[in-house]
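Revision sheet: structure tokens.
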Amino acid sequence: MSNTPSSSVASSPVPSSTPVPVVVPPPLAARRVSIADRLSRAFPPLACVRGFRYFARRRVELSQVSEKQLDAEVKGKRTQHVRLRVEEGRVAAACTCAAKVLGPATCRHVWATLLEVDRQGVLASLRNTQRPLAIGVLDGPKPKRPKEPPAKEEPAVRTAKKAVVKETRPKRAAASRAPGGG
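Predicted:
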């Protein structure tokens, strides 16, 4: 009964000639610390998902980058302007969008900007430690939004629609006031 499956499995040789790769992580000091990772708890999940879409589609442009501050433009339906500043080991942010109800500068535009900051490796002063960071509202001047020309609508179309509405209302009212109708 040497033809049993258990004996054939036990007698099959294991290939020992294939090397097993061993991955050794770099020392902690050599690792690149993600700023977005350290601030992620301050952002709502939906802001992170939508901000990642902007980031993945390369819709974030960093400008005026220095060691302690940067400005960015996030292009969506409208271009939003984000300013990030490093203040005493924490990040202060401002955005021109209307999502101020989410909390202190935790909108999708700020999140997309933080992801781009990590991609480009700027704001190196925040990469010295892995401890969680705090985010706050930027005091002082807000990022400037360039003036956009107002959308031009045809006033003749609006006037025509109002005139039609006014003409139909009196006819309905007159029909209900007719003798015997009522």
